[in-house]
Amino acid sequence: MYGKSVREKLEANNYKLTSQRAVVLDVMSANRGQHLSADEVFFIAKKEMPNIGIATVYRTLEKMAAMDVLHKTVFDQGKYRYELCDENSHHHHHIICLDCGAIFEVQEDLLHSLEQHLEEQGFKIVDHELKLYAYCPNCLKVEE
After folding, report:
1. How far apart are CA 104 and CA 132, in angstroms?
2. Where does the pLDDT of residue 93 fall: very low under 50, low under 70, confident under 90, or very high at 90 and above?
3. Span 93-143: which CATH code?
């Protein structure tokens, strides 16, 4: 299910894992590596727990993002998407297809050397996020 670090983060924040919150976390865990919107999480969670409310899903996602259990990233038209943080959390970047809207992850942290260079110049880098907009190989094949 979810790892030790998730449980530790919940405990460190005195966050009680109610059955509704657990369903949200289960959805995120079952969709590891996916970038789900709150509506998508709600739709999936509702299959497991029909009485779960959309407000509960939104609050749970926001709280878990604040605790670094989930990554929260803004993508299409200001809509936030969430993904479960890795146990060995590292930065990854995203490529968003301009045609189909698919989101692909780039696992290599290609900005590491840039961060080092900037820190040598006196900056203190605390975070970064990179999104590339392109056409995915599948959409390009359709155009041919």
Report:
1. 10
2. confident
3. 3.30.1490.190
